[in-house]
Amino acid sequence: MSESVAKAKTAELAFRTSDLSKVYGEGPAAVHALRGVNLEIPAGELVVLLGPSGSGKSTLLNILGGIDRASSGRAFFQGDELTAMTDRQLTAYRRRHVGFVFQFYNLMPSLTALENVDLVAEIATDPMPTMDALDLVGLKPRATHFPSELSGGEQQRVAIARAIAKNPTVLFCDEPTGALDSKTGVGVLKALQEVNTRLGTTTLIITHAAATAAMADRVIHFADGQIREVIENDHKVSPDEISW
Amino acid sequence: MFAFASILDRKLLRDLWRIKGQAAAIVFVIAAGISLFVMSHGMMISLDETMRAYYERYRFADMYAPAKRAPDYIIEELSALAGVNDVEGRISGGGLVTLPDESAPISARVLSFDPEAVSPINGVHLSEGRMISPTRNDEILLLKSFADAHELKPGDSLSVTMNGVRHKFTIAGLALSPEFIYALPPGEFVVDNGRFAALWLNEDAMEAAYDLDGAFNEAVLTFSPYANEDFLITELDRILAPYGATGAYSRADQISNKFLVEELAQLKTMGRVMPPIFVAVSIFLLNIVVTRLVQTEREQIGLIKAFGYSNRDVAVHYLKFVLAIALGGALVGWGGGVWLGRMIGEIYRLYFHFPFLVFIADFSTLGIALAISALSAAAGAFFAVRSAVVLTPAVAMRPPAPPKFASGNGVLKAVSRLLDQPSRMILRRLSREPARALLTAFGIGAAMGLSVMMRFNVNATDYMLDVSFNVIDRSDVFVSFVEPLSDKTILELESIDGVTLVEPVRSTPVMFKHDRIEYLGSITGLPEDAALNRAVDSDLQDVDITGNGVVLSEQLAEILNIAPGDTLTVEVREGRRPTLDIPVTGIVEALIGTPAYMDMDALNRQLKEPNRVSGAYLKIDPRMRQAVYNEIKAIPKVAGVSLRREAYENFQKMIDEGPGVFRYIMTVFSIVIAAGVVYNSARIAYIERERDLASLRVLGFTKIETGYVLLGELGTLAIIALPIGSALGYLIWSYMATAMSTDLYQIPVIYKEDGLGYAAIIVLLATAFAGAFIQRDVSKIDMASALKTRD
Ligand SMILES: Nc1ncnc2c1ncn2[C@@H]1O[C@H](COP(=O)(O)OP(=O)(O)OP(=O)(O)O)[C@@H](O)[C@H]1O
Ligand SMILES: [Mg+2]
User: Fold this and answer.
1) Does residue A164 carry a pLDDT above 50?
2) Per-residue pLDDT tens digits for A31-77
3) What's the mean per-residue pLDDT of chain B?
4) How far is the centre of ligand 2, averaged over its atoms, from the C-alpha of A22 (Å)?
5) Taking CB atoms and a 6 Å cutoff, what residues make up the pocket around ligand 1?
6) Is residue B75 part of a domain?
7) pLDDT for res A50
8) Looking at the CA of A62, which ligand is closest?
9) Probe ligand 1: pick from A31, A50, A67, A173, max atoms within 8 Å of CB?
10) Residue A100: closest CA among chain B residues belongs to which residue?
11) Exposed, middle or buried by CB within 10 Å (0-12, 13-18, 19+), for B491?
12) A33 lies in a domain?
């Protein structure tokens, strides 16, 4: 069943960019983080972004996630132009559609696991029961623990629960396993795949572990602020079979 | 080593620049305390130095010996007294000036002056026009402040009634004199430049006007430094007794000097009491701010040490950081203090008439200011820096460990269940480190305490003014006589059309003596059922003065060390100058001065001068004001007319624009301090939580929602600070009022709730203001970069 949902959605595009560029700084010191990125990401896919450090992956993710702005070019989400939105519109976009998972978890230290999830659910239009979100990442038993009482992997799974609790349309993960060991990382990736297949959430994952590509629908290779190669993966594997 | 130091120094400069807003706020907090110190200290030494120089240059008399009529040859006998440097006999008389633009008569002091004297005692500073001619009896020098108030110029003429005869004079020049630095009309306690005139005539003219051919009625003396004042007073009184001496008095009792010295004493007290309070509060704040600032740098400190810098390097680095801010505060404070001092100096010159008043921008105060702020900053930073230095470098290397939180106890849990997540974050942060939250609230409270104190101070002055003019003295006009007159004068006043009520008063200058303590003052005799001028205690209740005894104010009783039932010796300083023994029948707490009250008839009986009055309080029909003034002018022996409403307005003006301007400066400073503290607390909270805030923004919280997490905390702390500030305000004010009260001037320690409300509004406004700045920071958070790093 999930299979068919996913297939049905490929018809629409979640994101499309044209000539997207980002320049930091000016003059001779200018850094071209993105140099004309043209990209299409179908809805419902799990996409993995690979590329050397400094190649512009995070920059692209941040622009698509509405927390940074492009210097030129255009980016669309479901036909709406992100690059033309005001601050207020971008906030509303993040609030309604976007879930984020970062390398350093970014949990609120003063809130428990469940409350961290509630934090997002409270401002969402159509959230899932927050306990279900925690359950999805296997952390229901640790719901009342504060971040300081959780391991890194557990914290990252809380971050995922927090990101998905609002039933986001898209999920952005910037090196979600970067601070974790391989085994814990696999747990996190499983949680992400679970979300993608069960909820059909378009998911973008940046990673340095090339092996992760095996679980993706689509793999985008990045270098020097540009897309080098896009590979559609017909033989998706379960994260259990991945290690790095 | 040097290269390293220079890199650290570069970090220092960058860090200073990064927190420039905060650093500026701290600079202003320190500067407020310092400039208050520099201003009041500088003002004090400036006034003191100016007074000294002025007195010396114009040979201001050390002693005055008034008499009725003393022959000129007696001067020689006086100058032979041990310790006397120089003696001059002069003629001093009262007069009334009539001006077309002023309906009420104006009191004048008329003095003889030898225009050819080289360096006379009580010389004058000629500021405009020329000296009077020794041969022309119709020329005068006129007190400059009076001339300016009425726009009189040399060459203009002036009508003066002296000894009942009206004279017309030509103004030769305008003059200032050390005798009239503070030009107070008789019976008033606030200067009114337009209502007091002093004029100088040549001796011939004066002798003619006051019938004192070949005689003088006041000896003025200068001393050698070794003179014995008490001895001289006794001797002068003895020698001049046959000539109607009314009692010699020293410079300390000369009215202008007395007020000037009193003002200096007040400045001295204020300079002693106020700046330390302000500086103490700023040190406290600096301590809090630096502690938290260093805390936000903990990991950087660990890193620096991990690279191999020594503890000393790190300590020196942060001390430099603090000292840079402190020295900035000292310099700004010193500059501001000098600037304010100059401004205040100009204001003082409106009330204290000096030919020159240089604000002495004393560099010793700069040294003191630098020392105070450097020491206090170092002290404030000491613990913070020490705790930073003892950190192990590992702290920086450790993986990100989120600060520990707990749900708290039952109450906290119950409350937090009712809250949304952002409010829970606020509550948990406050309850996680209650000591720190309380410290911040205390800092805000301390700043508020200053505002409370300043408001209480304003209230107290208003209260005094209100009591003086609406409770104690409810008359419209006070008429004083040149000497005690028969009470027929009262009938005469009553018969004037437009006068609705007349109340006599008999007051007499005396020397109080008890237990070998002497105190120059006066006894006020009031009629039974006094209504226009009453004796009231500090509870505003009528004082019972019936009977033959005297009722003393508590302050006077304390000075004289006397209790009810004791007998007070009173040397009367007028008329026959009897020495009386009067029983003390009561002691009351008075609000103003050191009064002594008696029943008027009882006083007259004791003086053996029945039915005498020295002045009268009048209530008049406002529509007939002009006619009443004209009638009063016609009554001989009127020494002065004081208009209560004008006096009231003058007092108010002095408070608003005169030396009372200090109050406003301090009020502004307390506001600056409050704003500085709140802003700093908010900024530090912001820095500590920048990443959390960025995360909230990423999660889709709006700028306002995100700001709420921070500003809610700030607002809560501000509200917690309100009761703390109120309590501190009470404490500081009680201390202040007691410390600033003098014999002449009791500051009533009253507390009015509006002072608290006022200070609370200041704190809340400061919070709103700081909050607006922080909200701006929140709005500008760069989400992408804030999330990139761990911190
Ligand atoms: N705020 C900034 N100012 C200047 N340059 C920046 C800024 N942020 C990123 N860059 C530069 O932009 C380029 C792309 O950065 P980006 O963070 O997108 O790389 P990345 O592919 O995510 O690298 P990594 O795998 O190391 O995270 C880099 O060269 C980086 O130095
Ligand atoms: Mg990156």
Assistant:
1) yes
2) 999 999 999 999 999 999 999 999 999 999 999 999 889 999 999 99
3) 84
4) 14
5) A 24-25, 31, 33, 51, 53-59; B 785
6) yes
7) 94
8) 1
9) A31
10) B699
11) exposed
12) no
Domain that holds residue B337: 1-60+259-400
Chain A, chain B: beta-carbon pairs less than 8 Å apart = 100
CA B671 and chain centroid, separation? 19
Q: How many domains does chain A have?
A: 1
Domain CATH for A192: 3.40.50.300
Structural domain count, chain B: 4
Q: Residue A146: CA atoms inside 13 Å, Cβ hemisphere, count?
A: 17
The region, left, alpha or beta by phi > 0 then psi within -120 to 50, assigned to residue B164 is left
Looking at the structure, tell me whether residues B123 and B249 fall in a common domain: yes
B688 at interface of A, judged by CB pairs closer than 8 A? no
Most confident of B47-61, B275-289, B362-376, B431-445: B47-61
The Cα–Cα gap between B449 and A8 comes to 69
| Residue B436 contacts A where some CB pair is shorter than 8 Å | no
Residue A176 lies in a domain: yes
Which pLDDT belongs to residue B175?
95
How many residues are listed for chain A in this entry? Answer: 244
- Share above pLDDT 70 across residues of chain B, in percent, rounded to a whole number: 91
Question: Are B400 and A104 an interchain contact pair (Cβ–Cβ within 8 Å)?
Answer: yes
**Which of B401, B425, B703 lies nearest to residue A108, judging by beta carbons?**
B425
Ligand 1: residue whose CA is nearest its atom 22: A58
Q: Are B75 and B93 found together in one domain?
A: yes
In whole angstroms, how far apart are CA B651 and each of B105, B123, B189, B469, B474? 20, 30, 9, 10, 16
Cβ proximity of B288 and B440 under 8 Å: yes
Structure confidence at residue B32 (pLDDT)? 85
Q: Which residues of A touch B400 (CB under 8 A)?
A: 104
Looking at B227, B258, B289, the residue that finishes a domain is B258
Could you tell me if residue A182 is inside a domain?
yes
Pinpoint the alpha helices (H) of chain A: 2-9, 57-64, 87-97, 113-121, 130-136, 152-164, 182-199
Has residue B486 been placed in a domain? no
B704-720 confidence digits (pLDDT tens):
999 998 899 889 999 99
- Contact assessment for residue B736 and residue B453, using Cβ atoms and an 8 Å cutoff: yes
CB atoms inside a 10 Å sphere around CB A3: 8
> To test ligand 1's pocket by mutation, which of A57, A63, A67 has the most ligand atoms within 8 angstroms of CB?
A57
pTM: 0.73
Q: What is the pLDDT of residue B526?
A: 92
- pLDDT tens digits, one per residue of B471-493: 888 889 988 888 888 888 889 89
**DSSP label at residue B403:** P
Q: What is the mean pLDDT of residues B587-598?
A: 82
Of B422, B696, B790, the CB nearest to A104: B790
Residue type, B479: V
Task: Name the one residue in this structure whose structure tokens are 């976007």.
Answer: A98
Same domain (yes/no): B462, B525: no
Where a domain ends, among B231, B258, B285? B258
More confident residue, B416 or A204: A204
| Same domain for B73 and B32 | no
Is residue B39 pLDDT above 60, yes or no? yes
- Do B342 and B353 lie in a common domain? yes
Instruction: Give the chain B residue nearest A162 (alpha carbons).
Output: B699
Tokens of B250: 């020293």
Chain A residue at shortest CA distance from B402: A148
Domain assignment of residue A47, yes or no: yes
Partners of residue A58 in chain B, C-beta under 8 Å: 784, 788
ipTM above 0.90, yes or no: no
Whether B402 has its CB under 8 Å from any CB of chain A: the answer is: yes
Reduced to 3 states (helix: H, G, I; strand: E, B; else coil), residue B711 is helix
> Which amino acid does the sequence have at A40?
E
- Domain ranges, residue A160: 3-11+43-69+97-239
| Predicted pLDDT at A228 | 93
> Is the pLDDT score of A2 beyond 80?
no
pLDDT at B157 (0 to 100)? 92
